[in-house]
Task: inverse folding
């Protein structure tokens, strides 16, 4: 398989270590099977490309990223900036490769107080995890009722409200009025609510 | 001017020796020799702040123990990213109404500019359609952060339509060789928007080209003396030897003030159909246009 003019064989057996090394910015033999990151490229991008190009890579990346996220969430004690950045990138990766097995770990990150560490201006780790969680809720055939509490709780936070609202309306469209009433005062979801529903739940958008 | 001559004029013998050792580590292949050439050209010009360039070279000399010269670059830049980022001198004033253009991956646009939207695994054509039909427009970017702190934002003056015929052509024109799939977003904004922070348009330097990692990025430093001047992209079309692309400059990140978002134009191209063309760095080095 050829991606970015590099020849890739089957995914290596140490895929978890490879993801960890890439997202942590490591150099050396662990990351040598991958092209070096390019300008304007994020560490997870190469894995997204590989998952889109080959089902064996996609399945391997899903399993390995679940293991890595479980370990990193368990280890996450203090908001070390490098780990926060890598965790944010891992949340992005699991969403992009449709890894619904990682949803429990994403939910844990949304509720951890350490997750208020900033990833970049305007987005903390909590929001990144919630964006990934809701993005995955439109995948497959699951209804994911177990995530209703975390979404309902997030509705009260202006920074998380829109993302949570997309998830709630997407899964329980009949209750849209109830959810809208729970939004913080003066909260304006603007055009992004409709766009979010179209992106994640294209067949269930009650605003259409 | 070769780095050796520059070092002779500015540094004591021990620093010269260390720099020569580091520079020699960039001679093992044609892609590394392009980095060597860029360093030599930087020494020729007035594009970069002299103090920052001297400080960078001093730190390289103190750090490099070999064998990976690119790793040394990344280590030195990583230690003081804020200091070394955007070290180019400001460019001559450009008319406020002049529009700048920036290309980025659509998934990055969602990730960074459209937060708090969820991150879906698929359905990117829907997002592209929402942008191209104006449901998502510049107004959606009010108060959003444009770019990443301590990293250059690359932009061009070029609005030449042929470069935008397809996403593949635009990708090639701007040397975005790591983009194999997905859509590209073109953001266009007036120079006056930069003055709201303010941030300056600056000449692109080798330090900017290494901001995301010293390897695996095509950058051709402008040749000759003088400056500060706009640079140019490396156009990947041309059977491996590439060609001179469009104008390019860099500026810092900034927050788009409330009410200014509508000044930003958005358009999505794609999806990209093919991998980027292969590059023959040997032929590129021989190409007089680059």
Result:
């Amino acid at each position: 398989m050829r991606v970015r003019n590099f020849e890739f064989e089957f995914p290596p057996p140490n895929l978890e270590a490879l993801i960890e090394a890439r997202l942590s910015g490591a150099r050396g033999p662990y990351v040598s099977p991958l092209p070096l990151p390019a300008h304007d490229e994020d560490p997870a991008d190469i894995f997204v490309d590989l998952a889109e190009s080959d089902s064996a890579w996609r399945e391997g990346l899903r399993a390995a990223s679940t293991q890595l996220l479980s370990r990193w969430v368990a280890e996450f004690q203090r908001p070390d900036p490098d780990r926060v950045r890598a965790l944010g990138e891992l949340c992005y990766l699991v969403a992009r490769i449709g890894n619904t097995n990682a949803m429990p770990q994403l939910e844990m990150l949304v509720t951890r107080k350490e997750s208020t560490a900033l990833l970049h201006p305007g987005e903390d780790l909590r929001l990144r995890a919630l964006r990934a969680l809701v993005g995955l809720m439109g995948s497959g055939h699951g209804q994911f009722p177990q995530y209703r509490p975390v979404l309902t709780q997030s509705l009260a936070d202006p920074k998380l409200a829109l993302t949570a609202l997309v998830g709630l309306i997407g899964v329980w469209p009949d209750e849209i009025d109830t959810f809208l009433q729970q939004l913080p005062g003066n909260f304006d979801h603007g055009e992004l609510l409709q766009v979010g529903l179209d992106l994640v739940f294209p067949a269930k958008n009650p605003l259409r | 001017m070769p780095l050796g001559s520059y070092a002779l004029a500015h540094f004591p013998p021990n620093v010269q020796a260390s720099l020569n050792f580091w520079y020699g580590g960039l001679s093992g292949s044609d892609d590394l020799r392009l980095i060597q050439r860029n360093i030599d050209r930087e020494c020729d010009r007035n594009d970069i702040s002299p103090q920052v360039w001297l400080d960078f070279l001093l730190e390289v000399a103190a750090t490099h123990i070999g064998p990976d010269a690119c790793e040394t670059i990344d280590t030195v830049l990583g230690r003081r990213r804020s200091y070394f980022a955007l070290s180019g001198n400001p460019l001559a004033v450009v008319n406020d109404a002049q529009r700048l253009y920036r290309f980025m991956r659509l998934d990055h646009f969602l990730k960074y500019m459209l937060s708090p939207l969820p991150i879906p695994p698929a359905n990117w054509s829907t997002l592209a359609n929402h942008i191209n039909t104006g449901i998502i427009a510049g107004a959606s970017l009010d108060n959003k952060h444009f770019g990443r702190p301590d990293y250059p934002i690359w932009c061009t003056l070029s609005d030449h339509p042929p470069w935008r015929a397809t996403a593949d052509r635009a990708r090639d024109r701007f040397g975005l060789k790591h983009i194999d799939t997905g859509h590209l977003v073109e953001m266009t904004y007036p120079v006056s928007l930069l003055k709201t922070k303010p941030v300056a348009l600056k000449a692109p330097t080798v330090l900017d080209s290494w901001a995301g990692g010293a390897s695996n990025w095509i950058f051709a430093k402008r040749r000759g003396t003088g400056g500060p001047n706009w640079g140019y992209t490396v156009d990947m079309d041309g059977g491996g030897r590439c060609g001179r692309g469009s104008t390019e400059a860099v500026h810092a990140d900034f927050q788009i003030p409330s009410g200014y978002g509508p000044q930003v134009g958005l358009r999505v191209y794609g999806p990209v159909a093919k991998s980027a063309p292969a590059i023959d760095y040997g032929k590129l080095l021989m190409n007089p246009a680059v």
Summary: Chain A has ten helices and four strands. Strands of chain A lie at 2-3, 6-7, 118-120, 123-124. The mean pLDDT of chain A is 91. The longest strand of chain A covers residues 118-120.
